[in-house]
Amino acid sequence: MNLLLLDEPDFVSADRVLLRGRRLQHMREIHQANPGDSLRVGLIGGLMGSGRILSLTAQQAELEVSLDQPPPPKLPLTLLLAMPRPKMFRRILQHCATLGVAQIVLLNSYRVEKSFWQTPFLQPDSIRENLLLGLEQARDTVLPELHIEKRFKPFVEDRLPELLGDSLGLVAHPGDYPPCPRAVDGAVTLAIGPEGGWIAYEVDKLIEAGLQPVQLGERILRVETAVTALLARLG
Amino acid sequence: MNLLLLDEPDFVSADRVLLRGRRLQHMREIHQANPGDSLRVGLIGGLMGSGRILSLTAQQAELEVSLDQPPPPKLPLTLLLAMPRPKMFRRILQHCATLGVAQIVLLNSYRVEKSFWQTPFLQPDSIRENLLLGLEQARDTVLPELHIEKRFKPFVEDRLPELLGDSLGLVAHPGDYPPCPRAVDGAVTLAIGPEGGWIAYEVDKLIEAGLQPVQLGERILRVETAVTALLARLG
């Protein structure tokens, strides 16, 4: 936790917060913080700054906070991600929040196992928790937007062209395609398939919607690795 | 497993292998392979090609193999990595093998917890197993070389300059440094610190040895994410 994230209900007055639970435990056990210490803090969706510990017990901590710095800018990037295997999904949420993805659309695909959609990691509380872990790591306060699209065809035909707008649309797919561009200025919409890849029909539909197919070399990457590698290359 | 890796002891004649254990189980359960099917195969450290299943039982599989394609080239990259937390170490080994790192040097650092060096994941069999998992994912046959350097100062003073040779030496560290270069032609030696980063003394010693400090933006990445992001940016 490189940033202690605060939420509106933590505030007991304009510049005072009371913390319990996971954040209190982390301050005591990992930071080994004491009264008088200052920590980097940020308000979820708002500014960052510092928090001075006024008191700290096994039950709660009281901090005086001063918020005056903007969070780092987001990547102007929308990630269309075929719903990954649950354990990997959790880590990808964290990676995306850490790397600054602005928007995530979870998409169905032929090779997404139906059971993946049943995972408790798709519960709003769990999604939020994992995105917050990623923000705490990166020192950011702004949650990526996340949308769930369980029907591939209606989404790609009816909503993707509008979502794409003026952004550069890319679909990552192994094959005889141009290499993924580097250091792109401006907004990008990037589609990454499931383990085993998109099927040909899906690639065709994504191209019809305005995305350009690109590849990342002959090595086959796990989805988790591909997400980070593509974002690093584009960013 | 996108490539079935074979080892010399698997061969019962010049073009026949017998497989048991994990690979047999994977063929049966994941590939749901049957006699007559062909699979991509590769000889560890050697060529890749295809293997036709001659017979397949619960006990063993016999394949006729034909090896005629070279593995993909390695990245001309030596990674100097401060020894990570064991669970992350395992995944980083897999990522490095998948991404094509040629050589890994595990290095001590002030912020590496002593207990990390006690992990069973540092046993040669475990290192090999995780590197093989990464190669199977990427479709590569050549294991990265791995060296362990538990003493920072003697390594950096006495051996690093020679290891560096004519390669571009970089040390990733947050701070007021130039951004990490992109798409570097030629060999690179890249040093990545532990969670919490190198200490100033270590950065100074690495710079003395010929490495240039570079940064990857204001977001703080987990080591695992930083490894993939830096390799993708350099590669």
UniProtKB/TrEMBL annotation, chains A, B:
<dbReference type="GO" id="GO:0008168">
    <property type="term" value="F:methyltransferase activity"/>
</dbReference>
<comment type="similarity">
    <text>Belongs to the RNA methyltransferase RsmE family.</text>
</comment>
<dbReference type="InterPro" id="IPR006700">
    <property type="entry name" value="RsmE"/>
</dbReference>
<comment type="function">
    <text>Specifically methylates the N3 position of the uracil ring of uridine 1498 (m3U1498) in 16S rRNA. Acts on the fully assembled 30S ribosomal subunit.</text>
</comment>
<dbReference type="InterPro" id="IPR029028">
    <property type="entry name" value="Alpha/beta_knot_MTases"/>
</dbReference>
<keyword id="KW-0489">Methyltransferase</keyword>
<keyword id="KW-0698">rRNA processing</keyword>
<keyword id="KW-0808">Transferase</keyword>
<dbReference type="Pfam" id="PF04452">
    <property type="entry name" value="Methyltrans_RNA"/>
</dbReference>
<keyword id="KW-0949">S-adenosyl-L-methionine</keyword>
<dbReference type="GO" id="GO:0032259">
    <property type="term" value="P:methylation"/>
</dbReference>
<keyword id="KW-0963">Cytoplasm</keyword>
<dbReference type="InterPro" id="IPR029026">
    <property type="entry name" value="tRNA_m1G_MTases_N"/>
</dbReference>
<dbReference type="InterPro" id="IPR046886">
    <property type="entry name" value="RsmE_MTase_dom"/>
</dbReference>
<feature type="domain" description="Ribosomal RNA small subunit methyltransferase E methyltransferase">
    <location>
        <begin position="74"/>
        <end position="234"/>
    </location>
</feature>
<protein>
    <recommendedName>
        <fullName>Ribosomal RNA small subunit methyltransferase E</fullName>
        <ecNumber>2.1.1.193</ecNumber>
    </recommendedName>
</protein>
